Amino acid sequence: MGCFNCYGDSSVKKPVKKRNNNNNNNQCKGDDRAQPITDALNVSPQNGVKDESKVLVNQSAVEKDADASKRPSADGETNAIKARKFTFAELVTATENFKADYFLGEGGFGKVYKGHLQDSDQIVAIKQLDRNGCQGIREFVVEVLTLSMADHPNLVKLIGYCAEGDQRLLVYEYMLLGSLEENLHDPRPNKEPLDWNTRMKIAAGAANGLEYLHDKMKPPVIYRDLKCSNILLGEGYHPKLSDFGLAKVGPSGDQTHVSTRVMGTYGYCAPDYAMTGQLTFKSDIYSFGVVLLEIITGRKAIDETREGAAKNLVAWARPMFKDRKKIYKMADPALNGQYPVRGLYQSLAIAAMCVQEQPNMRPLIADVVTALNYLASQTYDPQNPSNPKSTEPSAHMFKGDNKQEPFIGN
């Protein structure tokens, strides 16, 4: 299991505090921000300072690109940053002075409130960063710069920000159905669990958002905080990646990685990154594989209620990848058997490749997108489970004999 045994209990994040209320319990996540994973590396304060300088260098690159976006393009149009600058008074009004009834969730770096912008009559989510937080300002800057340059249907839209005095707030589009974590692990009473088609749609959409960050943004970005609580769901369960405070500009030219202080969430962090501090695009691929396993199995990345290796989703799953007879046991019991058998094999094959211990064995995000787009396009009909269209495997996603064994690597 690589580095998982190296983590001490102190690296596990505290549970997110949430408050349920009649009006707002559908909304986006309680913001369970990632914490430094230092137990495995014994990062010293001096190392931390050095790494912060690298963060600033990367931010300078982002700022330079943002400035370039304001200049006229070849067709004469100006690609100005779209994020709006709000006054603190405007956001106080939008939340009725951060009224308790509008409170949506709380994490390590701030509280999230539902808000109503008076001038545009728009419902939004407003995150107020904790003024006493040690990393809030840096995350605030990175988030504004990253989302100001981003434009993709699978990334949450940053509407604006407020930087007034010691106040730092971010204003996002409101995501009606909350986070993937809430829908998978904490469903509302009398709410049906996510069906197979919806799960594949969410997985494919999240992969498309990650592909945009890796392959289409300039400069390319490593997300570094991919997890179920950071995938928000809009109308029709349309997924969008959120929270880019830990994002880093990826390696360029002859560089193979970015050396940085290890940051991430226990259970999602790639073992190679946790042990070496060398961050690559394949670090995100590992995290995506964990998310995909959660979507398929309905289990949490880390579940302290379970015993032994079963606490860690990847540790539990790896031996089962190799036993065809146990594949069925990996499907979420909440699905009640309503899934295409071949689709289950294929999705687990993708997840198995993503969570390979060796980063060079993990696929590129473009290949993951191709495979998941295929699965999402194969609508499963529980009334007609033998429909060839919903169960016919895509041969390029598998390796082995005619029985189409899932590819499990070495």
UniProtKB/TrEMBL annotation:
Residues 98-375 form the Protein kinase domain. The lineage of its organism: Eukaryota, Viridiplantae, Streptophyta, Embryophyta, Tracheophyta. InterPro entries: Kinase-like_dom_sf, Prot_kinase_dom, Protein_kinase_ATP_BS, Ser-Thr/Tyr_kinase_cat_dom, Ser/Thr_kinase_AS. It comes from Forsythia ovata. It is a lipid-anchor. Belongs to the protein kinase superfamily. Ser/Thr protein kinase family. It comes from the Eukaryota. One of its GO terms (molecular function) is protein serine/threonine kinase activity. Signal peptide: none annotated. It is found in: Cell membrane. One of its GO terms (cellular component) is plasma membrane. Gene3D superfamilies: Phosphorylase Kinase, domain 1, Transferase(Phosphotransferase) domain 1. This is Serine/threonine-protein kinase RLCKVII.
